[in-house]
Amino acid sequence: MAEKTDHKAWVTVPILPCAAIEETLSFWEMLGFEITYKQTRPYQYGVVARGGSELHFGRVKGMETTGNGYNGCLVIVPDAEEVYREFTATFKEKLGRVPHSGIPRISRMKPATTRFTLTDVSGNSLIFVDSDSGEKDQETWEKADDKSQSPLQKAIAMAIRFRDYKEDEQAAAKTLDVALRKAENEEKIILAEALVIRMDLAVFMDNRARAEACSELLSQLGLPQSDVDGLMQKHGIEQ
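Now predict its structure.
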């Protein structure tokens, strides 16, 4: 009979790739992590730690950071929104801006969401997520499959899925564009929500013409400003 092994004695340590250990460790140190180990010879390896968790990195010679689109991990935290606010404040202080594109970058975290993605200087994508996010995320994700909704409501839910869970603003915008062209007999408040989201996506993608067109269509609906303000607040859009 095989001897039982205490599962706590088994430790798995995934190693994320990096182009240069110094640059990678400095990046995470900037975000409040502590460098607990650094080795440059015979190969580059380093570890950063925070909140009882560790991130291990190993240099890959000749690595292209732009092609590193498949490496990453989950970082489960008590309050992802609080961590997001801290990270974005640090980016503003150190870089003068919050990078939402390129490398490094941080995804936009919308109100009532439970996660955000941080892509480091080596292209690793780490998803910071609330420890109690499961049920809420499932509800938001499955809303796009709710057949009781109108076509435009389903499109809004699908766009939110693309925007908040896949970081695919292009797909979110295309989904709304198609649905808005086909929209018939939709309530004004639903049309307004779709236009508000689409306008925000246009601003994010630096498409001023589309943003202005959405703004004009929104004003033509004739909704009270309080309703429009509420939709803006719901989707975390600054006015």
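The longest helix spans residues 188-204.
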